[in-house]
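Margin note from the TA: students keep mixing up input and output lines. Inputs are the sequences; the output is the structure of the whole complex. Example:
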Amino acid sequence: MYYAPEVFLPESEQQPAPAAGSADHADVYALGVLLLEMLTGSTPDPLTRDEVLAALSDSLPIDVAEFIEECLSFEVEDRPALEYVGSFLLERTAEPR
Amino acid sequence: MIEPSALQDYRREQGDALGTAVWERVPVLLDVLDSASTTPSREHLARLCSCRHPNLAPIWGVSAANVTTPEAIVLARAQAETLATRVQRKPLSILEAGKVMEAVASALAYARRRGIVVDHAGISSAAVYLASCDGTISSSATVSVALYYRPNVRVCLARHHSIGIF
């Protein structure tokens, strides 16, 4: 459930492993699942994933919903950097309204 | 290294629940390595045991019958409920989630910088311990992530089905 989709690809289709000491895109996906669980109480079910993500903006601020979608993107390049995942929510909360 | 006989003491205190332990007043997690899997290298164990991060549960030692066959790894357990338990009660606010996410991402980045491979199945709410026992996440709360060794030369953040809940 916390595995990124690309983890299940055949080895020949997987992207090269990240350089030693650096985070990889699958880390961000796993944290996206964790974030979704924290804010909604549920984790993405592969069968209902699209519906759950589409409905996020009904219960969460639009930027938070979009951020979770980015973390859970099937396209690894669309996922944010790990450092940004760690700081996004707190920085957003600290911004003056 | 922790003597194998000490593991028996852990287990006696906790009954026969293999893989779980309570050490007097200080709770610990105990993960028993699968001897059928790849034996971890001493270098990797040493690297893991040297991890020091405010958001990672410290590893206390490795149990081994001898220096080449580690049996278990013992790590401290925060005396607090898991994030999974907290979320079941009520989802977190955005601010609360932000604090947890910052802590977990920091711990994960640290592990990566040290060259430790993390199994993503282990990055779960059951592996995150909230420092405040009442489930509130204050500005001073510390979030500990349990990092433990898996025998396939990977490191997982502890999963609830492989550790004791006590």
